[in-house]
Amino acid sequence: MKVIYSDHHQDHDPQQFIVRGRMKRSNEQPERAFLLAGAARDNGHTLVQTQDFGAAPRAAIHTPEYLRFLATAWERWQALDDASDEVTPNVHPFPGQPCTYPDSLVGQAGYHMGDMACSIGQHTWNAAVWSAHAATHAAALVLEGERATYALCRPPGHHAYADRANGFTYLNNAAIAAQYLRRQHPRVAILDVDVHHGNGTQGIFWRRSDVLTLSLHGDPHFCTPFFTGHAHERGEGEGLGYNLNYPLARGTGTDDYLHALARACQAIRDFQPGALVVALGLDAHERDPYKALAVSTEGFGRITGEIARLGLPTVFVQEGGYLSPDLPLNLASALRGFEAVA
Ligand SMILES: [Zn+2]
């Protein structure tokens, strides 16, 4: 399988990650992508250098003011008196209350950054742009006839809304890939198998019926992002019924995971999309640092084998999956499982 990769990710190395009140280095580290790229290469996949697809693909998903904020925030932050090295929010608007777009950069940070897990460093914007290019490139190759491609995206993307970063993500790579596939296909599905709910993807396509969004994830009763990912969230207006969530109990293993996946795959078949984007998180693994679900390494191959049986042109987009000796094995299993069936 062609693996779309760029070294630009490595300059994004966020240090200010606040979890349970403690500040520490983010779990979303450059070493992840080096491990994943090594695993792809060692297992016979072809690394392709990411091409520049310009600003249009990201502008088709994200708002102009948000893109302007991401592109300029770090430099503007440095001009503030006694500012930290990374842009980090400390004040937020209140849901459902009147809200005027703020002039202040500190206000804009709170408006566009949903949590303390999406700090912006000097090169974050550049890394996010190239990550989105990788997803677009992978989609373009599928439109040219590849059966499946894998975008090794870092930073990941599935938590990013049209105008808001959160959960280690800035630009929604899976959404950008799906929108690009829409150039040729009237209907596209996004299947998110990351252990965390694809809240940004859900938000972006919430009112649309041309992109079916499905997410399997740890139940929001115990798993971040907490506020979304329930089965009753099904879309609104045009989009009602085109957003499907499959929350899973803590510790769900491979067999039970596959039961939920079978239901999701049937919904994809019923939708009859022309192409599929898989938001490929590997953090549902039993030894991932998040320890929410308990999919085995071999289980990732069974999951992607099931996905391959859909028979759709498929773009894999890397999401989560954190540092452990299992991470490269899980990617190898996922790619092998797909190719064994496809
Ligand atoms: Zn995740």
Radius of gyration: 19 Å
| Order of SSEs | EEEHEHHHHEHEHEEHEHEH
Main sheet specs = 8 strands, parallel
Number of helices: 10
CATH fold annotation:
Arginase, Chain A
Small molecules bound in the structure, each named once: zinc ion
What is the typical, i.e. mean, pLDDT?
97
CATH classification class: Alpha Beta
At CATH level 2, the architecture is 3-Layer(aba) Sandwich
CATH superfamily: Histone deacetylase domain
Give the helix proportion (percent range): 25-40%
The termini sit apart by 11 Å
How many discrete domains? 1
Report the β-strand fraction as a percent range: 5-15%
Residue stretches low in confidence (pLDDT < 50, at least 5 long) are: none
Write the topology of this structure.
Layout: E1 2-5, E2 17-19, E3 22-24, H1 30-42, E4 46-49, H2 56-59, H3 64-78, H4 105-112, H5 124-143, E5 148-151, H6 173-181, E6 188-192, H7 199-204, E7 211-218, E8 243-248, H8 254-271, E9 275-280, H9 297-308, E10 314-318, H10 327-341
Parallel strand pairs: 1-4, 1-5, 5-10, 6-7, 6-9, 7-8, 9-10
Antiparallel strand pairs: 2-3
Bound molecules: zinc ion.
What this model shows, in words?
- The chain has 342 residues and is of the alpha/beta class.
- The chain has a single domain, classed as 3-Layer(aba) Sandwich (Arginase, Chain A).
- It is built from ten helices and ten strands.
- The strands form two sheets. An eight-stranded parallel beta sheet has the order 4-1-5-10-9-6-7-8, sandwiched between helices.
- Helix 1 (30-42) crosses helix 10 (327-341).
- The longest helix is centred in the middle third of the chain and has 20 residues, at 124-143.
- It is globular, with a radius of gyration of 19 Å.
- Bound molecules: zinc ion (ZN).
- Zinc ion (ZN) binds at residues 194-196, 281, 283, 319-320.
